[in-house]
Amino acid sequence: MNATTSQSSLLNAGYSAERPWGDQAFKWLTLLMALTVFVLIALIGYELAHGSHLALRKFGWRFLFSSDWDPVNERFGALPFIFGTLVSSVIALVIAVPLSVATAVYLTELAPQWLRQVLTVFIELLAAVPSVILGLWGIFVMVPWLREHLFPGLRAAFGFLPLFRGPIYGVSLLAGGIIIAIMILPIITSVSREILRSVPGLQREPAYALGANRWEVRRIAVLSYAMNGLFGAVILGLGRALGETMAVTMVIGNRPEIAASLFAPGYTMASVLANEFTEATTDVYLNALFEVGLVLLGVTVLVNALAQLLLKAVASRSPNVP
């Protein structure tokens, strides 16, 4: 017995002597891989900051609040692009969030199993459509329909509001917001669906026991419990909306101005980079475009960081979330 115990102790000692080296190597290897993401973001930020040093030194904080964009006289300001990015993103959220959350609720709580699978496949297919294809569809199908039907109707019904006044061109901030809404709808729907699926059944049973109907159970027990996660899904969609380029460039009009009407053309930070980077003939012009990219990177990183914090909050509340 003593011999067997001694042999087992020796084997365990040898295993323990070898195991820490492998564990430490695996730990540092995975840590290095994880840090690669932060290094890439830091390098991108450094290159953008280095590429925009002339604009940073010449314009300073005025760059964020100036409406001038005059490459001939080298006067640059990013306010029209920030305005166009934020307005088109807000329009996209106003359209996409109710549709996405309602679709996720239906798929999670109400749809029969066979229809749930079919709708999920089509949502995933919509997410896989390249943005340039949606842009072409927007130019040749959506924009003419908006110009001939929807926009005149909106102006006739809500023309007393500044948002729906002015000439109708078709390409506009509203058209850009609609195309972004189509692009972020599958993202918000998919994340919202997973969040709603993570709500434990114990949330629903007490509501049914108290006599709540199906709508009250979904509103009180499910949606209220998953609110933080749903908001995180919206923020993830907003992060995609802020950086969308090709489809928006093709339908928004690409005019660097600030207008109260949603029918007016606009410009986004991503669009100006795609359109004018190859046309930058002077150092200051090129540096101004780099600074626009730096602002866009900062906004996108902050939005996505907020989304991750909110998704962690809902995950910590539910034992079913991995």
Specify the helix fraction band: over 70%
- Work out the strand percent: under 5%
By DSSP, the count of extended strands is 2
Strand order of the largest sheet: 1-2
Sheet with most strands: 2 strands, antiparallel
Distance between the termini: 45 Å
Low-confidence stretches: none
Rough shape?
globular
The ordered H/E elements are HHHEEHHHHHHHHHH
Question: Counting H and I runs of at least 4 residues, what is the number of helices?
Answer: 13
Mean pLDDT across residues = 84
Question: What is the C-alpha radius of gyration, as a whole number of Å?
Answer: 26 Å
Class from helix and strand fractions: mainly alpha
Can you tell me about this structure?
This protein is an all-alpha fold and 322 residues long. Helix content is 76%, strand content 1%. The chain has helices at residues 2-51, 53-59, 62-65, 79-110, 113-128, 131-158, 173-197, 204-209, 214-223, 227-243, 246-251, 269-276, 283-317; strands at 69-70, 75-76. Strands 1-2 form a two-stranded antiparallel ribbon. β1 (69-70) and β2 (75-76) form a beta hairpin. α2 packs across α13 (283-317) and α7 (173-197) packs antiparallel against α10 (227-243). The mean pLDDT is 84.
